[in-house]
Amino acid sequence: MIHEPIDRPIDEPIDAAVAAHVERALADYLAVRHAGMADQAPSFGSAVASLADFVLGGGKRLRPTFAWWGWRGAGGAGTGVEAEAVLRAVSALELIQACALVHDDLMDASAVRRGKPTVHVEFAARHRERGWAGAPERFGAAAAILLGDLALAWADDMFTGAGLPAHRQVAALPPWQAMRAEMLAGQYLDVLTQATGDESGEAALSVARMKTAAYTVERPLHLGAALAGAPEHVVAGLRAFGTDIGVAFQLRDDLLGMFGDTEVTGKPAGDDLREGKRTLLMSAGLRRAVAAGRDADAEAMRAALGDDALDADGVERVRGLLLDVGAVTEVETRMAELTETALTALEAVELADPAGRVLRELAVTATRRTS
């Protein structure tokens, strides 16, 4: 499916419909880039169309939304030419997200994302259907690597080509550059903990902080505030809020990955377990089982971690153990504590209306149970 540019304005002001405006900006940008690639290399153009489908096929647009409210909270305008440029710039965060998801699914050998085949699975199937030479899985992996890289490259292009005044773009470069590196560092820490089998809570929280919190909430808020020329104390307060909410968001995602409804999450329940993810939930479960002298239960959980053949009964057994040893309650309590400290940090920051209220609402939305 080729997405055409949206040639009519969205009726609502940006503040009232940030996600819809982001969607428009992404559709416009990807349509132009797809047209250019299709003219140069039609075969690659069809691959780019798949990337566009992936980007526009789901997601809550949380990252650009947080960035927008960082901009607004620091005094940035809600309408006008400059506001539209900022909206285009922060929409580029969704392309960074696309890069992360496409590569993460490949590294984790995930088959489903948002209820559809992941990119590497889609291209492996395309290879099989057309009877091409070579291994389908290798072709699918190559396509996913290249399209993820393309999404990251286009994120930079979209950000730098958004039409921002030069002084605003320069001010925003430090958080933009830091965010890209932190995202990749978080991805590496994630696979490292799987490889080393590190069960510590400290390792799990480090992954949550670097892989999710930094580029989902903290740096987008930093980016928006920097675009508006916010003073350091405002940036620091927003980052403190964003770090704790971002970690809480990941902890909620971990719980949904184990207990959520596949129809809601778009991924099979228990996938994190099969992939060997050393989440805080699993860390707490193992620690509490060992502390209670339940070594056999701890070993059962360890055996399930990374077992890609684990069936529904095996997942259900681990769920029961996590509930029984109190790991789920511990993670829920940690989420509540993080949300409280985040909101306390937010209250200490003087923000332009209505940013404070909206950010509080976003914090609740990002961390509440959705299934």
UniProtKB/TrEMBL annotation:
InterPro entries: Isoprenoid_synthase_dom_sf, Polyprenyl_synt, Polyprenyl_synt_CS
Gene Ontology biological process terms, A to Z: isoprenoid biosynthetic process
Cofactor list: Mg(2+)
SUPFAM superfamilies linked: Terpenoid synthases
GO molecular-function term, one example from the UniProt record: geranylgeranyl diphosphate synthase activity
UniProt entry keywords in alphabetical sequence: Magnesium, Metal-binding, Transferase
Any Pfam family: polyprenyl_synt
EC numbers on record: 2.5.1.29
PROSITE patterns the UniProt entry points to: POLYPRENYL_SYNTHASE_1 (PS00723), POLYPRENYL_SYNTHASE_2 (PS00444)
CDD domains: Trans_IPPS_HT
Gene3D superfamilies per the UniProt record, alphabetical: Farnesyl Diphosphate Synthase (1.10.600.10)
Top-level taxon in the UniProt lineage: Bacteria
Keyword Metal-binding belongs to the record: yes
Family: Belongs to the FPP/GGPP synthase family.
Name of the protein: Geranylgeranyl diphosphate synthase
